[in-house]
Write the structure tokens for this entry.
Amino acid sequence: MRLLSLVILGIVVVCPSISAQEGFVPRRQNGPPGPPLSPQQAIAKMTVPDGFTVELVASEPDIQNPVAMTFDERGRIWITESFEYPRSEAGPGRDRVKVLEDTDGDGTTDKVTIFAEGLNIPSGIAVGHGGVWVANAPDLLFLQDTDGDGKADKREVVVTGFGRTDTHELPNSLSWGPDGYLYGLNGVFNYSHVKQNGKDFPFTCAMFRIDPRTRKFELFAEGTSNPWGIAWDSEGSAFISACVIDHLWHITESGYYHRQGGPYPPFTWKIESIVDYKHQLAAYCGIEYFDSDAYPAKYRDRLYMGNIHGGCINVDGLSRSGSTYRGEAAPDFLTANDVWFMPVAQKIGPDGCLYVLDWYDRFHCYQDARAHPDQVDRGHGRLYRVRFKDTPRAKPFDLAKETGDELLARLHSPNRFYRSLAQRVLCERADRSTNQKLEALVLRDAVSDKTRMHALWALVGQGNLDPAFHQQLLDSSHATVRAWGVRAAGNFAKIGKGLRDKIATMSADESADVLLQVAIAAGKIDELEPLSIWVEVLANSGDDELIPHIVWQNLHPELPKRAKDFLTLVKAQDLKASPNLKKIMPRVTERILANKK
């Protein structure tokens, strides 16, 4: 019998292996987990709102230990599987990427293809720009099938340096942002150090992004805990789920957020979550902004998040609070009533339903997996669909073969699945004649905001805009359009003088969203003087909660060499009438006094 040694309060206690223990209770569970249920038994125990049913899309042996998922232009489902978890050593492994297909349209998988093998805990996946992006620490890989046989035959290491110190917090949640970048997350105890083009990026808990065309790596924001799940709302704001600490966070570029543990960089002014409540026990995984007419209105435009310890799919509403948001607790959407249920990813599918990927294991926590790796389940995995009444199955499609006009029509779909995919394909094509039609769509006030934004993102993601069109964005009466015009300029860095001058004046914009993006872009745009812009943004942002944090994170590195210039600008302001400028001044004083020169 294998023995395990545990040290408790300095006393060595000898315990038998799990198989020899009666009534072993894993962490965060109320009793022994018991044997696994069949997929049909598991579904029978689930509860969902009236009118909804849970359907099985795929299960073992077709999928086992699934970690991440995504959909492609044909509606095929790509998943990663891990038999190596919780292995900490890098190097080749037994893990793989699979493609699931429903060839007869009955809603269940009937064709499974192994696309790639030899991986080692592939923890994130995205399809786009001619290949498949896979997080496989320490690397982020770009895999391609160049001969059309359905299997990867070309492998590129895009960046390397992700840690494996905590295989519960590996790089994950690869997601296409509205700006065309590929985004991902990394956890607080997974120490990483990416080096690229002479730059060092040491980090732990962070949201990172990569330009799919140039391969440029950036840290978008830092903080939280072991985040796992990125979602984008209809205005292009980012939200993530996180464990242990608060579960819901609005993430803004250059922000530094509350950390579960570990030191903050000097002079950090941390940002808190957007919730003051929890859902069951704090172990969250995956997140999706649900926007589809397949469900009744009260279930749309909300965030759906997996709860590992709670065995649920939780729901959060959102309301605006200046330049940020507040979360609002809503009733759970699904309760599994089965402790083996581990919802690691949630996605809208082509039929408009919510798909839920289930790792399905007796262990929720890495402590149990590390202590008893031979007891980690290796044989189960499920993919479910939550369907409302008789929602029709998706008809066969292939957006990669559709014309520009057909893709433009997809931008009007009430199902965000098609809008987002069409946006990405249009962005990748960068067709000049179609771009002109996209510009017209963005500027057409009669078109729905959701359609206009996806059209705009298809253009922004190409890495440049026609200067005349860009000027029209900045002059728009639509605040979200103006904000994205500024955000695009910050991403591009090099823009014309007329656009630079316009953005400088937007430090007095009436919209908090615009002011937030001006604060971020001011330090990124070449030949733009940021100090005066940051002072004006603070002076004009009232008591907005988020803006002073973002200004500070961008401003304080400049103060040691430009303190006098900054203070001269502040003297011209009325601090009594500028709450955010007044709020930041004690930090300015501390930063200046810390400079020994």
About this structure: Residues 579-593 form the longest helix (15 residues). The first strand starts at residue 3 and ends at 8. Residues 1-21 have pLDDT under 50 and may be disordered.
